[in-house]
Input
Amino acid sequence: MLTLDYSHTADHRLGGARSQAIIGVVASGNLEILLERVLPGAACEVQIATPVKGYDATWEAVVTEFVSRSSPGGLRISINDGGARPDTAYLRLMQGCALMERS
Amino acid sequence: MMQDVASRENGSWLQATARQRLAGLLDPGSFAEFIGPEQRVESPHLPIFDLPRAFDDGVVIGRGTLGGVAVLVAAQEGQFMGGTFGEVSGAKLVGLVRAARDHKQLPQTILLLLDSGGVRLQEANAGELAVAELMRAIVQARCGGVAVIALVGGKAGAFGGAGLTAGTCSRVVVSEQGRIGVSGPEVIETNKGVEEYDSRDKALVWSVCGGKNRRLIGMADAFTDDTMDGFRAAAQAQLAVSKPLDLRTLQHEQARLAHRERTLGGCNDAAAMWTVMGVPDPDAVAGLDTLDFITLAHSIKDANHDAR
Output
């Protein structure tokens, strides 16, 4: 199992009042994402546990793009990966943010 | 709890995740989870096999209301490791049922959203123990007046320990897509040969362990279409008719099963069983829509009983 950690400073703090949300399932080609509003200011941490090795650069690119586009400031994001493709991972991250932005 | 398209009234139970099913089943906003994913109570065994874990280990437990009635709920996530019973996922199920058994101030109705192939092979000893403990806890809880209602309509069905568990419940609700059994089709084919049971013959598989046959032979008490509202309505109807387990119930169950063995034991396929049971047109059963099938099931004597 490979663990990847990324720390970012987002553009701003994510809106919404939810303290946590979970989206997706650990299944083949899928992943689950737990989002928790526990960090100060615009900090954002993403931790990924994946059984698939050798895609560090791809994960980094997905996370960087996601942070710049969604500005998930204040979130700790934890991922259990079941071998999701980058587009699925990106989609789930956006879905998770949308859930957190609900009132 | 999220509210999304998948949890709407006509959303498919089969396609939904465990969390989407709970959102579609319970009164909106009523669900409160126990040991949520943020607590990260995950399997201690899967990392040894380099397999990914889930934050809830594939079982979601909690409480909520169904039509205003307080209930405890447990939902297996069939997409994660086949909804299997592991050390943690099993303990969550056992703990929930024991809590209802021991604490009368808790809701005295448990809805079990089964979606499982049985024991998780990577943690089989813990899983087998969990199944045994769960069945024992259900029986003890039922003796104390707790109603345990199984809802079966997920892709993994209810096989192995989940099939056994369904057999210990007060009532069982199933959809056409739901399957209930002990050894699954692939297991039977592997052990007995393709001549005995062709697991790729989906019509055969569903005619034997699918919801319609299980309802007709009395393994399930209610039949619903594959929607959130269907399961919601069926579960609500069962709340009213679940009775405590006592010696009389067990005697009725023993008599019912003996009768089934006597009358259906010589049949080679589902259509032969339905003929014996008095279904007028066995070949038409697979094509019946939900309402027509429910009407048929109500008209068949042996499909309805006060055992269990």
In short: The mean pLDDT of chain A is 96. DSSP finds two helices and five strands in chain A.
